[in-house]
Specification:
The protein has nine helices and 14 strands. The chain has about 325 residues and is an alpha/beta fold. It folds into two domains: about 160 residues, serine acetyltransferase, domain 1; about 100 residues, Hexapeptide repeat proteins (UDP N-Acetylglucosamine Acyltransferase, domain 1), CATH 2.160.10. The strands form three sheets. A five-stranded parallel sheet has the order 1-4-7-10-13. A five-stranded parallel sheet has the order 3-6-9-12-14. Strands 2-5-8-11 form a four-stranded parallel sheet, with no helix packed on it. Helix 2 crosses helix 8, helix 3 crosses helix 4 and helix 7 runs antiparallel to helix 8. The longest helix is centred in the first third of the chain and has 23 residues. The protein is globular and about 70 Å long. The N and C termini lie far apart (about 60 Å). The relative contact order is 0.07.
Length: about 325
């Protein structure tokens, strides 16, 4: 059997495999959103949000106004097109024709773009929180250009506004793109107040119905998650994730779970804490009486010691 016959045989094998009626075999009757285009929209929105920090070298214009105008036209065209595609995932537009979809997508696009000043206002506070909260930050330019936490927050603030406008798929594609780059997983449904600071960030997971107040700081490895997902789709639309009030600090490795869990104002949560019940305002939560054990010499047990309950312990970076 020569190479062409082998290719033909494999193709026939795959065609037979596609005929089994599974989810992965489904051939959609409408287009999918273009992930690369959506990522490009996000990158161009970064230029809109930070006009003095990022630019597109393809556009050789000499004024900020002209540059923004050209980029905005590109964003509008592509966002309308992509929203038109994904609206068919919504029950409201499932059987709509292309004209209806296009009109709805245009309306949604301009409603979203009107939110940009608000998004920029919030991101300005996030930059301030990062600078004020991180002694390793030498200037705000460093934060804007290099901090993965800020990029994850920026992406969430963009995606969240589209989520509120009930745009399917696109918000999640955006946040998962940020997740892939930063290791920070924030669902676009998450509501986040001003002055939000993520330090380091790797391994952070924040669930869909999480509500985060203002002046909140969290470190790497934190999970703000659901207490249980056994209910599966039956839990859709319900408050499954915690509420974090203003001025809360959550140190690395902590897990705070459950839709009824409220972490009160000013709470400090120590590293590796596992929390499934509400915490009153002003409390400090820590893991007490940790015990070190070694398995190489059982005849010499390690002395058990209490963790000192002072401010130094809470800052473990």
């Amino acid at each position: 059997m020569d190479i062409h016959e082998k290719i033909s045989a494999i193709t026939e094998m795959l065609m037979e495999d596609y005929s089994k009626g599974r989810v992965i075999d489904e051939i959609k009757t409408f287009d999918y959103p273009d992930k690369n285009v959506i990522i490009d929209i996000l990158e161009k929105l970064k230029i809109i949000i930070y006009p003095g920090y990022y630019r597109n070298s393809n556009y050789r214009t000499y004024t900020v106004k002209n540059n923004i105008s050209i980029i905005m036209e590109d964003i509008i065209y592509n966002l309308i097109k992509q929203i038109s595609v994904v609206l068919k995932y919504s029950a409201e537009y499932r059987n709509s024709d292309n004209d209806v979809l296009s009109q709805a997508a245009e309306k949604i696009t301009f409603e979203f773009l009107e939110k940009i000043p608000k998004i920029r206002e919030y991101i300005e506070t996030d930059i301030a929180a990062a600078y004020d909260g991180d002694p390793a930050a030498y200037n705000k330019d460093e934060i804007i250009c290099s901090y993965p936490g800020l990029f994850a927050i920026f992406t969430n603030r963009i995606a969240h506004e589209l989520f509120l406008l009930k745009v399917p798929l696109i918000p999640r594609i955006m946040t998962e793109y940020a997740h892939s780059l930063t290791g920070i997983d924030i669902h676009p449904g998450t509501t986040i107040g001003k002055y939000f600071f993520i330090d380091h960030g790797t391994g952070i997971v924040i669930g869909e119905t999480t509500v985060i107040g203002s002046h909140v700081k969290i470190y790497q490895g934190v999970t703000l998650g659901a207490l249980s997902t056994r209910g599966g789709q039956n839990l859709r639309g319900k408050k499954r994730h915690p509420t974090i009030c203003d001025n809360v600090t959550i140190y690395s490795g902590a897990s705070i779970l459950g839709g009824e869990t409220v972490v009160g104002k000013g709470v400090v949560v120590g590293g590796n804490a596992f929390i499934t019940t509400s915490i009153p305002e002003g409390a400090k939560v820590s893991v007490k009486s940790q015990e070190l054990t070694y398995n190489y010499d059982s005849s010499k047990p390690v002395e058990r010691k209490e963790i000192e309950q002072d401010e130094k312990w809470y800052y473990i970076i």
